[in-house]
């Protein structure tokens, strides 16, 4: 394996435990805690891992796509400038979804009943994410959130651009994504386990913290846009 | 039911505050600026050899997500050092942002340059640390500069 790929993998591994859990942890916790009680198929560690695996494969697919584009363009600043608007929009969507998931967890506003009364595309997507019980829903969620603005992944996108090749750029971000897997899978498992153990007040408490984190997420990204 | 939600709301605020505080201000506590690049270059002396290392980034103001030129000028006893190996390691204090390392090339009269980008921290971190390593005659020394970006 080339030195660049080893470095990308190691960066993902180290960054996963330090950076990713801190920054993306609330997001992973929100979809894990919200779905935990409603999914019947989670009886073993493998079954508990599957949603997170699908989510992370989606995330890594997006990293590979961005890495390939960066490598092809050979310029980080140009590509990053072009996709920054979309990334901020994804961050705002992530904030809104966290708020919705938090509302669902805490039981405020009658759960998701009001979503049933609305039929536009975005709300349908949100409803599917929030209420669906298919493992496949986690793949598009991960693919979408792979676009979230993130300082650590920017550094890897720079490295991908520096390779000057579509394939090398894609592989650089692939190995980075694989490196982040252990931390995020472990975090997802722990969050899932805790959400099964949380009852009553603590469960609602986690929902409200997720709402507040969503508002915070929304706030910093709207602030970044203006 | 309503009491539980109310109690949960009350209890959630301090936990949320701690979380946001950790994300927003961990950078500020782990380091303080010692290099005001917006007003000019930063000069430090390394070792006991009286080697002066001047650090600069252009264009100004120094912004994230843009192409930057990193300049290091090395002098010993006021004379330019032209045969050193100069490396630059860019990190964010208190937050792992990956490996952002550059080897600077000698341009002229002890001035070494390299191009790079500082990624933006979506959570508002603005402090960066540049560690300049100067290698010469089989010896190496490192000096660091902590600066702010826009």
What are its keywords?
heterodimer; A: 226 residues; mainly alpha; 9 helices; B: 150 residues; alpha+beta; Immunoglobulin-like; 9-stranded antiparallel beta sheet; elongated
How is this structure best described in words?
The complex is a heterodimer of chains A (226) and B (150). Helices cover 83% and strands 0% of the residues of chain A. With 226 residues, chain A is mainly alpha-helical. Chain A has one domain. Chain A contains nine helices and no strands. In chain A, helix 7 runs antiparallel to helix 8. Chain B has 150 residues and is an alpha+beta fold. Chain B has a single domain, classed as Macroglobulin (MG2) domain (Immunoglobulin-like). Chain B contains one helix and nine strands. In chain B, strands 1, 2, 3, 4, 5, 6, 7, 8 and 9 form a nine-stranded antiparallel β-sheet that branches. In chain B, strand 6 and strand 7 form a beta hairpin. Chain B starts with a helix and ends with a strand. Chains A and B meet through helix 1, helix 3, helix 7 and helix 9 of A and helix 1 and strand 6 of B.
- For this structure, what is the CATH class of chain B? Mainly Beta
Average pLDDT for all residues of chain A = 81
Structural class of chain A: mainly alpha
Which CATH architecture of chain B is right? Sandwich
Shape of chain B: elongated
**How much is the radius of gyration of chain B in Å?**
20 Å
Overall SS class of chain B: alpha+beta
Radius of gyration of chain A: 18 Å
Query: Count the strands of chain B?
Result: 9
Major beta sheet of chain A, specifics?
none
């Amino acid at each position: 394996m080339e030195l660049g790929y080893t470095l990308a993998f190691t960066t993902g591994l180290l960054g996963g435990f330090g950076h990713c859990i801190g920054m993306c942890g609330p997001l992973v916790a929100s979809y894990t805690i919200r779905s935990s009680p409603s999914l019947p198929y989670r009886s073993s560690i493998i079954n508990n891992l599957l949603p997170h695996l699908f989510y992370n494969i989606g995330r890594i697919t997006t990293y590979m796509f961005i890495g390939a584009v960066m490598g092809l363009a050979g310029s980080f600043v140009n590509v990053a400038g072009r996709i920054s608007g979309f990334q901020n929009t994804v961050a705002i969507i992530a904030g809104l979804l966290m708020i919705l998931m938090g509302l669902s967890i805490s039981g405020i506003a009658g759960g998701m009943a009001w979503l049933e009364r609305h039929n536009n595309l975005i709300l349908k997507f949100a409803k599917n994410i929030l209420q669906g019980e298919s493992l496949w829903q986690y793949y598009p969620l991960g693919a979408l959130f792979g676009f979230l603005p993130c300082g650590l992944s920017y550094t890897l996108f720079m490295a991908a651009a520096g390779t000057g090749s579509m394939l090398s750029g894609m592989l650089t971000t692939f190995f980075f994504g694989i490196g982040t897997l252990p931390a995020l899978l472990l975090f997802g498992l722990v969050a899932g386990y805790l959400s099964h153990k949380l009852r009553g007040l603590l469960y609602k408490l986690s929902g409200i913290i997720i709402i507040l984190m969503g508002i915070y997420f929304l706030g910093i990204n709207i602030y970044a846009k203006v | 039911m309503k009491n539980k939600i109310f109690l949960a709301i009350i209890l959630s605020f301090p936990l949320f505050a701690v979380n946001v505080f950790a994300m927003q201000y961990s950078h500020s506590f782990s380091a303080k600026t010692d290099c005001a690049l917006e007003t000019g270059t930063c000069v430090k002396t390394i070792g006991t050899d009286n080697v002066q290392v001047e650090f600069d980034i252009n264009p100004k103001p120094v912004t994230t997500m843009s192409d930057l030129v990193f300049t290091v000028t090395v002098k010993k006893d006021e004379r330019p050092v032209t045969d050193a190996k100069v490396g630059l390691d860019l990190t964010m204090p208190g937050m792992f942002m990956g490996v952002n390392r550059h080897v600077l090339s000698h341009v002229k009269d002890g001035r070494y340059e390299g191009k790079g980008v500082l990624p933006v921290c979506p959570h508002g971190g603005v402090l960066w640390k540049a560690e300049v390593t100067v290698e010469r005659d089989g010896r190496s020394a490192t000096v660091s500069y902590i600066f702010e970006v826009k």
